Amino acid sequence: MKIIEIxxxxxxxxxxxxxxxxxxxxxxxxxxxGLFINGKWCKAKSGKVFSTDNPASGKKLASISEAGKSDVxxxxxxxxxxxxxxxxxxxxxxxxxxxxxxxxxxxxxxxxAVLETMDNGKTIRETRDIDIPLVIRxxxxxxxxxxxLESEFPEHMAIGPIGQIIPWNxxxxxxxxxxxxxxxxxxxxxxxxxxxxxxTALLFAEICSQVGLPPGVFNLVTGPGQTGSLxxxxxxxxxxxxxxSTDVGRLIREATADTDKxxxxxxxxxxxxxxxxxxxxxxxxxxxVDAIWFNxxxxxxxxxxxxxxxxxxxxxIDRLKRRMAKLRVGDPLDKSMDMxxxxxxxxxxxxxxxxxxxxxxxxAIWQWDGKLPQNEEKKGDGCYFPPTLFTNVSPxxxxxxxxxFGPVLVSMTFRTPDEAVMLANxxxxxxxxSVWSENINQALHVAPKLKAGVVWIxxxxxxxxxxxxxxxxxxxxxxxxxxxxxxxxxxPKESGISKNQFRISVxxxxxxxxxxxxxxRTAKLYIGGKQARPDSGYSLNVVNADGxxxxxxxxxxxxxxxxxxxxxxxxxxxxxxxxxxRAQILYFLAENLExxxxxxxxxxxxxTGVTEKQAALEVKTAVSRIFTYAxxxxxxxxxIHQPPMRGLALAxxxxxxxxxxxxxDEAPLLSMLSMLLPAIAMxxxxxxxxxxxxxxxxxxxxxxxxxxxxxxxxxxxxxxDSAKLGTVLAKHDDVAGLWVAGTKTECTEACKLxxxxxxxxxxxNGKQLxxxxxxxxxxxxxxxxxxxxxxxxxxxxx
Length: 798
Ligand code: NDP
What we know:
- By secondary structure, this protein is of the alpha/beta class.
- It has 28 helices and 35 strands.
- The strands form 9 sheets. A 10-stranded mixed β-sheet has the order 14-17-18-13-12-19-20-35-29-28, with helices on both faces. The chain has a 6-stranded mixed β-sheet with strand order 9-8-7-10-11-21, sandwiched between helices.
- β26 (539-543) and β27 form a beta hairpin.
- NADPH dihydro-nicotinamide-adenine-dinucleotide phosphate is lined by residues 165-169, 192, 194-195, 224-225, 228-229, 232, 243-245, 248, 251, 267-268, 300, 403, 405.
């Protein structure tokens, strides 16, 4: 071909990466792999194996051992035995291991990149330039956190042996996101990669041996979902970190509901990609290519919902189709390909079914019409899917709501920024969002309104080890990466033995006491800033410690909770109020509680039977606690991350939204305030269910709220059977978070019943807290519980 002809056609020549390095490595192992447990390679006890194929060619790459129950038991045992020594190493010693891992990964980066491409089907351009460099960065960055652990997290400690379950879309990258922080924090690990993509994890295990990582610190069990399930149900694993589908996330949450296991879930998404009319449209189109055709769209945070302002929609769609036509789909090992193969035929079929569904729903389809490679083995269609665009999509349609997990973009239009936000948030998910506008004011105005854990302004799919990643809503909870991610692998250091042992004896009403009570003494519910009669019209007796009748409380039910949740949603202005304002209101609350200190002391004494001295201490501690949260309200600030790019990522601490709080019986005023204060200091609005026997403390408290300028609807109090009301809150899909301090059964129920919308949950797991202990019951840990981190990426420069 003449040069002039090349200029005319601009055709690409093949640019294949040499697979020899990876093939040699497979050959060296006779294409057979065992499990990596306690620093040694072993076969699965069942003798079962499964094969892993190259999705691009359909050819088998290797046979891999399938870990069963006794293998998982051995791996967990090894991690448990290795934990005390690993934890006891100095931060510096652990930092050296992580650094050594980073160096080895760097040294073998080409092998890792080629192997990943062969096992997963993603392009070599991506594994070489994105996956592996980020993996290395994660180990370097977390070597730093290991070094600084004692000085940066003095109040925290490692959790124990941890189970980690990862998906197939970013196999080694997900390994690094999980293993690096876990080891840096002093935990040991049992990891299960996805069945489709175990090879780079196996190579990583070899590297662990090479650097002399102590046996048992990192254990690898390969196998299907069942292997993961064995880990989830293993009582010696103290945390499960999972990335994958929302359905499996739900199962894991249910399976761990009655345990102490810490849980982080990185689940699916249907992330909006918003283009405003003043955006740099060409950049936005390039951004879209990265958003939805990166990794064949098999990305949890893929920008799969295009929202484009009506005035530029035609132009954008036209340019987009022209750009799509130029995408190159083919052999993933060819360095000039934009898209490679889909992970497996079953996944391709799933994408196709959803595309057919879209057509049935009446959306207009436009597809790339190039030639897709054939399957070398089966001599049929290869495992590829063409870049696909749907227009004329209705926001409620299945393709607009379901995670397709393939190279399929659905587009919709909007007229105003408010409509863009509404459409963007019209999803059960909340993982990421991308906003394109040359007007930075507009972009930064929209970003906080988006229900997503990550917002990219004029960019997309940016990741870094220093910046937390994770979702809102059904996209899961917990953050991976950065300062915020380290907390997920740590727990607060246990404080000393509780000094205050509570006597929680709930007296029974004396028969003679009932008649003495006048109707006026029935305390109502407190909803939307007003006293409200319970829907049922019934009330419940509240009894003093001496058996006399103290009063009556409303017997709240499902409808009262519904009204309270509605009122809490209407108070959303509290979220956007300034932290200074929230602090001022909290100080005022303290002032007003102190004014009524004697009244509360008497109430606590009469109801609970504690001494006057103890009750006075409770009120005094409560006032001090209000001061703490008034102080923290404007000090629980975010961070500015500086990832290796020309730009910043703002890690903002945001309120969760509407929180349900189910309070315990012990220290009724102090425990209630210990839960309420961090929630409202962070800007959440609350539906609070007070202790059933001591609810009069809460109903007295709403008079303090009324005099302290707390806006209507920020705190709603529904009295009644707290276990029953807790169940209603758990099932309510408009409640974003739930805290339950109750019995073990109540806590387990709350975890199980709240998986509908995957609300963020905290429970005391039936263990009594010492509410007088500031370390346990007050401070930043509670502020963190009451908030979620949103990272807003802002590149700069022309
Ligand atoms: P899964 O959620 O099934 O798999 C994720 C990981 O969990 C894998 O290691 C899997 O093992 C394991 N697993 C499966 N079942 C269980 C279980 N009951 N208990 C414990 N672990 C389990 O995702 P899939 O790979 O099946 O993909 C299905 C869909 O999930 C995709 O189409 C996509 O929509 C979504 N997905 C989302 C991802 C994300 O990053 N958010 C990543 C991957 C998928 P194994 O692979 O061996 O079955």
